[in-house]
């Protein structure tokens, strides 16, 4: 930088950096700072800034915002901050330290090529080993008319995946493995599968350089999942094929645009409940060095310690006015500037906590998100619990929020493995969990139904392991859920026994069938459609290796589950009955059949009070051109005969039977198999779906 830039007062809003015709406006929040320095670097890897601009409080401060305009700067400028102020951790919680270099919380892109986490801890100056932010011109991109897709929740099928894990394996044969651009190469697979939305594990900038511990084999274990962010406006540097300005912004946008052209929405898994700065022994990256007392929950008795409702060292004080503003503006930014279709909020219940950590009846941040005009057509999905014991499934604040339905996962897992006495719970889950969402006057579309997700066993491992096998995580097996409601079908882990293998395939089909034939919004875990395995590891958060990478050779090999899953999603589209955004309520169709009638093996005898029951059936009256349907779930180990209802002018036809091998497990429209009887023998551990189609002979039966 050869000439001194012209510096003017600039504007306090918007926060972050704004590129205009003659320079860049900088603005940052800090209520209690007494000094703010803007550091300008010529290059990303320079150890020292080429110029430091000290912001004078009389000219460059408006209330809590520090700001300036620097003429002659533009996109690509590397910058950071230093701040000074009180360091009174026990009383006020302030942790100002002028020796630490701070990222801009609103930075649109960051660079970590010189970053050393340990240097951000302690008393030394860390400028030579700091992260820096980049000025970004958001207008320099051609969206080609792209807009968020706005697929109705009732039509949505979600596919949860990890950006790196999806293509990091050599079997993915990707040009730039583990990146945003590589993910677009898998779009044809997702289109054939029939999903409507990808839900990406965290893509906000996070610190994957941190060594968590050493594994039993001596390898260094890092944060792989990304649930530890520091940059809430910046795409993760590690997912860019070329981590510079164009790589951060253009590559992410290219990915979103490619998904949209394929008719697939992009939902981001976002982590606003904690940050990468950890507890009082963690690094100073940005928030704690700028407004520690505003951004975090601190113990009132001694504010040098952090409350921890997340299990990650700190908890974000989300309902502080400035933090609410920060969260809302981050979300609106991803929608307006990156055309993101929705968000899944990690440990979302933490966002309902007030200043002292107690649950709030009307949390400002959650209602601000729900009522934002910018987010009005954006999907918002809560993980309705946190690490501090707050559990809000069915009572999460607001009306529009969809919620991960933990009871659906647990009840269906238990029922399919053969646990008795659950038929009432299973009926509720199939019907959209009215017991959970009905009292709040919500809908089945408030329920995100899932059997597996990133956190826990894969579908294949759920039917292959009784116990978790997390030794490689280096925590002596103490991590990960201890109760998974799994069943190994008789053998722990891989086996060559064909009988065990056939049973496992059937059990996976059963689980998938209940998922897709239930009201609510189904979510699949990436790789479940081709039996992806993690070797029994149910907490692969630190396994950035083949343990958690998708094996695409497996996708070619496991055609049975792949084809079944694809046809099952197709079947869900065929019958609107399963996608109705309302609960079953007894409404009669033109044939005077209720929308649902519950049975056991005998008609209208579901056995609600039978503690030994392992079967459930229901007749679903068809509306809007749908045929009447009859669903039978036999989770007993032996085959059983189920009575079928008689419908005048209709005959029952088999559509689905998980006991049949592919391709006969699901029959395409027009090829359903006639059932010439009013009793159906359902094999042990099977799901069967019949459709009542017009009797071509006109026989009245």
Unreliable residue runs: none
Measured between the Cα atoms of the first and last residue, the distance is: 90 Å
Q: How many DSSP E strands? A: 32
Describe the global form: elongated
Mean pLDDT: 96
Rg (CA only): 27 Å
**Beta-strand percentage range:** 15-25%
Largest sheet properties: 8 strands, parallel, barrel
Strand order of the largest sheet: 13-14-19-20-21-22-23-24
Count of individual helical segments? 15
Structural class: alpha+beta
Helical amount: 10-25%
Q: What features would you describe in this structure?
A:
The relative contact order is 0.08. Helices cover 20% and strands 21% of the residues. The mean pLDDT is 96. The strands form eight sheets. Strands 13-14-19-20-21-22-23-24 form an eight-stranded parallel beta barrel. A six-stranded antiparallel β-sheet has the order 25-26-27-32-29-30, with helices on one face. Helix 7 (321-338) runs parallel beside helix 8 (364-371), helix 9 (406-417) crosses helix 10 and helix 13 (498-516) runs parallel beside helix 15. By secondary structure, the protein is α+β, with helices and mostly antiparallel strands.
Quick take:
This protein is of the alpha+beta class and 701 residues long. The chain is built from 15 helices and 32 strands.
Explain the layout of strands and helices:
Elements (H helix, E strand, L loop, with lengths): L6 E2 L7 E5 L2 E7 L5 E7 L9 E5 L1 H4 E2 L2 E7 L6 E7 L2 E2 L5 E2 L13 E3 L20 E3 L23 E4 L1 H5 L12 H4 L3 H7 L3 E4 L3 E3 L4 E4 L5 E3 L6 E7 L9 H17 L3 E6 L16 H9 L25 H18 L3 E4 L18 H8 L7 E4 L19 E3 L1 H12 L5 H8 L3 H4 L9 E4 L8 H4 L35 H19 L4 E5 L26 H6 L1 H16 L22 E3 L15 E6 L7 E7 L5 E4 L6 E8 L15 E2 L4 E4 L3 E9 L7
Parallel strand pairs: 13-14, 13-24, 14-19, 19-20, 20-21, 21-22, 22-23, 23-24
Antiparallel strand pairs: 1-7, 2-3, 3-7, 4-5, 4-8, 6-7, 8-12, 9-10, 11-12, 15-18, 16-17, 25-26, 26-27, 27-32, 28-31, 29-30, 29-32
Helix pairs in contact: 7-8, 9-10, 9-13, 13-15
């Amino acid at each position: 930088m050869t000439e001194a830039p012209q510096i003017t007062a600039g504007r306090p809003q918007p926060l972050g950096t704004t590129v205009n015709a003659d320079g860049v406006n900088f603005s940052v929040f800090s209520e209690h700072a007494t000094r703010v320095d803007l550091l300008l670097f010529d290059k990303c890897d320079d150890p020292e800034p080429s110029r430091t601009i000290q912001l004078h409080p009389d000219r460059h401060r408006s209330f809590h915002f520090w700001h300036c305009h620097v003429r002659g700067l533009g996109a690509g400028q590397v910058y950071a901050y230093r701040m000074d102020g009180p360091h009174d951790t026990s009383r006020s919680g302030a942790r100002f330290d002028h020796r630490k270099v701070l990222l801009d919380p609103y930075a649109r892109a960051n660079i970590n090529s010189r970053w050393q986490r340990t240097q951000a801890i302690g008393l030394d100056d860390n400028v030579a080993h700091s992260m820096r932010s980049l000025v970004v011109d958001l207008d320099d991109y051609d969206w080609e008319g792209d807009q968020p897709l706005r697929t109705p929740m009732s039509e949505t099928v979600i596919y949860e995946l990890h950006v790196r894990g999806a293509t990091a394996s050599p079997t993915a044969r990707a040009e730039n493995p583990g990146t945003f651009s590589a993910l677009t190469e898998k779009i044809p697979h997702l289109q054939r599968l029939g999903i409507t939305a990808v839900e990406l594990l965290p893509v906000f900038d996070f610190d994957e350089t941190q060594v968590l511990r050493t594994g039993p084999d001596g390898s260094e274990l890092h944060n792989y999942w990304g649930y530890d962010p520091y940059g809430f406006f910046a795409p993760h540097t590690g997912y860019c094929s070329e981590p510079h300005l164009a790589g951060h912004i253009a590559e992410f946008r290219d990915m979103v645009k490619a998904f949209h052209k394929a008719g697939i929405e992009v939902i981001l898994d976002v982590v606003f409940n904690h940050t990468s700065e950890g507890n009082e022994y963690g690094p100073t990256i940005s928030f704690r060095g700028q407004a520690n007392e505003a951004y975090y929950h601190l113990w009132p008795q001694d504010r040098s310690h952090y409350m921890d409702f997340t299990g990650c060292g700190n908890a974000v004080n989300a309902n502080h006015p400035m933090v609410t503003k920060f969260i809302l503006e981050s979300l609106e930014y991803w929608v307006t500037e990156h055309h993101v279709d929705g968000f899944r909020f990690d440990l979302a219940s933490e966002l309902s906590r007030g200043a002292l950590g107690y649950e709030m009846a009307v949390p400002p941040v959650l209602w601000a998100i729900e009522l934002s005009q910018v987010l009005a057509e954006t999907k918002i999905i809560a993980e309705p619990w946190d690490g501090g014991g707050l559990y809000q499934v069915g009572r999460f604040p607001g009306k529009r929020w969809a919620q991960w339905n933990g009871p659906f996962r647990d009840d269906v897992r238990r029922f399919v493995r053969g646990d008795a006495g659950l038929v009432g719970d299973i009926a509720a889950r199939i019907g959209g969990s009215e017991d959970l969402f009905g009292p709040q006057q919500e809908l089945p579309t408030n329920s995100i139904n899932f059997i597996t997700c990133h956190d826990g066993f894969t579908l294949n491992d759920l039917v292959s392991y009784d116990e978790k096998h997390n030794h490689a995580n280096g925590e002596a097996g103490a991590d990960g859920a201890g109760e998974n409601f799994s069943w190994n079908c008789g053998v722990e882990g891989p086996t060559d026994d064909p009988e065990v293998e056939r049973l496992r395939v059937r059990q996976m089909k059963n689980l998938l069938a209940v998922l897709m034939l239930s009201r609510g919004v189904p979510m699949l875990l990436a790789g479940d459609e081709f039996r992806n395995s993690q070797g029994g590891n149910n907490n692969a958060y630190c396994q950035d290796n083949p343990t958690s990478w998708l094996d695409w050779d497996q996708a070619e090999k496991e055609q049975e589950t792949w084809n079944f899953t694809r046809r099952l999603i197709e079947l869900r589209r065929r019958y609107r009955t399963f996608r109705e955004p309302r609960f079953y309520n007894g409404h009669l169709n033109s044939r005077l059949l209720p929308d649902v009638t519950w049975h056991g093996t005998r008609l209208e005898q579901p056995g609600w009070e039978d503690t030994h029951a392992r079967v459930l059936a229901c007749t679903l009256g068809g509306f809007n051109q749908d045929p009447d349907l009859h669903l039978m779930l036999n989770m007993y180990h032996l085959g059983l005969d189920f009575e079928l209802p008689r419908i005048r002018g209709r005959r029952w036809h088999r559509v689905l039977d998980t006991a049949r091998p592919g391709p006969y497990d699901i029959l395409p429209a027009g090829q359903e198999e006639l059932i010439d009887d009013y009793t159906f023998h359902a094999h042990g551990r099977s799901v069967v779906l019949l459709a009542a189609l017009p009797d071509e002979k006109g026989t009245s039966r």
